[in-house]
Amino acid sequence: MDVIDLKEKEIFEKEDRGFANLVDEKYLQINQVCLEPGQQVPHHNANSNVTLTVVHGEGAFHVGNEVTRMGPGKLLRVPFQSPMSIKNESGGGLRFGDQDPSPSRVKIRPLTKRRRNMKKKLYTLLAVFVVALTMALPGPGTALAHCDGLDGPVIVDAKKALESGDVNLILIWVQKKDEAEIKKAFQKTLAVRKLNPEAKELADMYFLRPWSVFTAPVKENRTRV
């Protein structure tokens, strides 16, 4: 059994905050921080999921856009990467514990066989849908309006269609006979986008790319909205 006397670890400094490391293990660090009246822990982003516990005194704990004033008996959880700062606005000393899982020492979990297989299936699905989309788009032999590029009106409408889920925003650029295939490719894109952020990014890239390299056909008697 290892008992740590927090009073013995009390370190107050006139020039800067006092600091004492209480536990330094592979996956855990616990420190005690001491602030004189007016002293503070400057603004920074939490480098892990941090737990703060006031031992003595009272302080103002700023996390994101919120501030809470805590005394003994209170515990504050701060999420990873949250902007934070701490200030002793009282007339006496402030002591608080700072506990975190020592993220710099935590090993990154390697991809498991299951996760590798899921990723492989994801890329396979994307490849199939890209082929279907490419086949659905009108080719160079069609009556053409212009080459769109990555910032032209066709791409703008394609992005709006993906974000809103409204395929009609892109159908204005294709001929009537091509609409059924475009709708199928669009639905496949929406399905892939829902898998995870990586899938969404890839799906958008592969959906938008053909619209930038293929020329858009003129649609007769159709009004662009």
Helix-residue proportion: 25-40%
Radius of gyration: 29 Å
Report how far the terminal alpha carbons are from each other: 74 Å
Q: Outline, from the CA principal axes?
A: elongated
- Strand arrangement within the widest β-sheet reads 1-2-9-4-7
Helix/strand-derived class? alpha+beta
> SSE order, as H and E?
EEEEEEEEEHEHHHHE
Query: Average pLDDT, to the nearest integer?
Result: 77
Q: How many beta strands in the DSSP annotation?
A: 11
Number of helices: 5
Query: What number of structural domains do the residues give?
Result: 2
- Taken as a percent bin, the fraction of beta residues is 25-35%
Largest sheet: 5 strands, antiparallel
pLDDT < 50 stretches: 104-108, 139-149, 214-225
Give your account of this protein's structure.
The protein starts with 17 loop residues before the first strand and ends in an 8-residue tail after the last strand. 32% of the residues lie in helices and 28% in strands. It has 5 helices and 11 strands. Helix 1 (113-136) runs antiparallel to helix 4, helix 1 runs parallel beside helix 5 and helix 4 packs antiparallel against helix 5 (197-213). It is elongated. It has helices at residues 113-136, 153-164, 168-171, 179-193, 197-213; strands at residues 18-25, 28-35, 40-45, 50-56, 59-63, 66-70, 75-78, 83-87, 94-100, 144-147, 215-217. A hairpin with a 2-residue loop joins strand 1 (18-25) and strand 2. With 225 residues, it is of the alpha+beta class. Mean pLDDT is 77; it is low at 104-108, 139-149 and 214-225. It folds into 2 domains: 18-105, Sandwich (Jelly Rolls), CATH 2.60.120.10; 113-217, no CATH class. The strands form 3 sheets. The protein has a 5-stranded antiparallel β-sheet with strand order 1-2-9-4-7, with no helix packed on it. A 4-stranded antiparallel β-sheet has the order 3-8-5-6, with no helix packed on it.
